[in-house]
Design a protein that fits this description.
GO terms for molecular function: alanine-glyoxylate transaminase activity; L-serine-pyruvate transaminase activity; O-phospho-L-serine:2-oxoglutarate aminotransferase activity. Belongs to the class-V pyridoxal-phosphate-dependent aminotransferase family. SerC subfamily. The structure is a single chain. The chain is of the alpha/beta class. The chain folds into two domains: 108 residues, Aspartate Aminotransferase, domain 1; 235 residues, Aspartate Aminotransferase, domain 2 (3-Layer(aba) Sandwich). The chain has eleven helices and 14 strands. β13 and β14 form a beta hairpin. α2 runs parallel beside α8, α3 packs across α4 and α9 packs parallel to α11. The longest helix is centred in the last third of the chain and has 21 residues.
Length: 353
């Protein structure tokens, strides 16, 4: 039985991925030199489609990384000499904080509970802060920080760069890069690709300001990006596949994709609200509930629910970390169709009988 993966990442592969891989094989993409014109054409196309999909302006660079955890480390190394500030309400925001501490930075934090909405007017950023680190969509617990709240914080501290983790929400949120200095994500979630490629978007002002020299320092990345190359041999296949996936998303309509994401999330929310005996939504405030990763409290029924759904061909994720034994998580990415969700919800309903 072919399964549909609603896991938060890696997740369900993009529907046309088999066709793109066949094309890659027929064109010997995996054997191309990363200094060849053929590769440069691929990288240029992927960057072009990324800019169009996410409305990334020419003021920002696009760097190809190995993962989002690497992006966190490179961001800290290039942008923080002494002091960073972190909003933390989950495990992946914690990882960003850990990346700063591991490099000997003074990492100040504001902790808040999953599902709590921060009053940005009350957030006090220390004067010597060089970077504000925010996890816009917290994969570990299904919470998010509204973009308008992030913009409100930027308005209060316009001179401090913001680095935004959109790993499990991209390409859903529309990020205004006039207000966001850095954003990063990886491809194994909302782009339906195998893991192994991260995307790091950086304002040129930060590239020019970076004094860090070493592996993946911003100036060396930018120097190669000018000619659509990378300092080292990149994941050529993933870059090619990403370009194909993004072009298909654009052709289908970005607005349509975002609307579909909201409609699919609504299906899950309505089902859970109508069937409290199945479980309860972990994040109750709609303003801070993720549309792309939905966490459901099911108590001691986690293993039973997961196994019953798997037998019917639906794979959902367990809770993360401290929530592993009491929650399930359902991913809602562009590669998940409305029909996929309707079938999943039908099987969730049958579990109750």
């Amino acid at each position: 039985m072919k399964k549909i993966y609603f896991t938060p990442g890696p997740s369900q592969i993009y529907p046309k991925l088999n066709l793109y891989i066949k094309e890659a094989l027929s064109r010997d993409i995996m054997s191309l030199s990363h200094r060849s014109k053929d590769y440069v054409d691929i990288a240029q196309n992927t960057q072009h489609t990324l800019r169009k999909l996410l409305q990334i302006p020419s003021t920002h660079h696009i760097f190809f990384m190995s993962s989002s955890l690497e992006s966190m480390e490179r961001i800290i190394a290039n942008c923080v000499k002494m002091q960073s500030f972190h909003l933390i309400n989950g495990s992946f925001a914690e990882a960003f904080f850990n990346a700063a501490e591991a490099q000997g930075k003074k990492a100040n934090i504001l902790r808040f509970k999953p599902g709590e909405r921060i009053d940005m007017d009350s957030v006090a950023i220390p004067k010597k802060t060089e970077l504000i680190c925010i996890t816009q969509n917290e994969t570990s617990n299904g919470s998010c920080i509204p973009m308008k709240d992030i913009y409100a914080l930027k308005k209060r501290y316009p001179t401090i760069p913001i680095a935004l983790d959109i790993v499990s929400s991209a390409p859903y949120p529309l990020v205004n890069f006039k207000k966001i200095d850095i954003a990063f994500f990886s491809v194994q979630k909302g782009f339906g690709l195998p893991s192994g490629l991260g995307i790091l978007v950086v304002d040129d002002a930060l590239v020019q300001k970076s004094k860090h020299r070493g592996y993946h320092d911003f100036p060396s990345l930018a120097q190669k990006e000018l000619i659509f190359q990378t300092p080292e041999t990149p994941n050529v296949l993933a870059i090619f596949l990403l370009g194909k996936v993004i072009l298909d998303m654009i052709n289908q309509g970005v607005g349509r994709m975002r609307k579909a994401t909201e409609m699919k999330a609504k299906l899950i929310v309505e089902f859970i609200n109508a069937h409290p005996d199945f479980g309860l939504l972990f994040i109750t405030d709609t303003n801070v509930r993720s549309k792309t990763v939905l966490a459901i409290e099911v108590g001691n029924k986690v293993d039973v629910i997961i196994e019953k759904l798997k037998l019917k061909g639906f794979v959902v994720g367990k809770g993360y970390g401290i929530y592993k034994k009491t929650q399930i998580r359902i991913a809602n990415f562009p590669q998940h169709s409305m029909r996929d969700f309707q079938r999943l919800i039908k099987e969730m309903g049958l579990i109750l009988k």
